[in-house]
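B., you asked whether I could sanity-check this one before it goes into the benchmark set. Here's the sequence:
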Amino acid sequence: MHVLSGDDDLFVNQNGTATNTEIEIHPDTFMYTHAKTGIAALYRQKKRHMGVGKLYRNSHRRMLSFDAMSGLLFYTLFICCPAIYFEPILALGLFVFRWLLQVLIYRKSFIKLNAKSQLWYLPFLDFVYYIYINVFGVIGTFVKTTQWK
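And here's what the prediction gave me:
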């Protein structure tokens, strides 16, 4: 393909259907890579990965954008609630409800991936994820990646 990275997920995005694609989470199917050692290398890699998103199917881009924006909005409002004198018990209740719902949804996958103990990091990682996905989503949309490394 004509992209620097992401050709694998783009292929699945463009050609995958419910009848010809299956999700497999068996440990034998895992692929491990070495983490980037510096901030600059990590930034280049993430910018490159996010730049491919504009090539996804329009319906999938809309769903991913909705998820990214709704998550960012949720945490923005959660953080701003005390400043606007919103009922803190209600805000905390909504946060706990969201977290419990995520635990119920993700628990089975975490167990199959042998990562059950990491489920408790979900509230923090979810928060960081929405910052990451929105920042690099904007960067990937407006900044053209022209080099691999």
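One thing to flag: The chain has a mean pLDDT of 81. Otherwise nothing jumped out at me.
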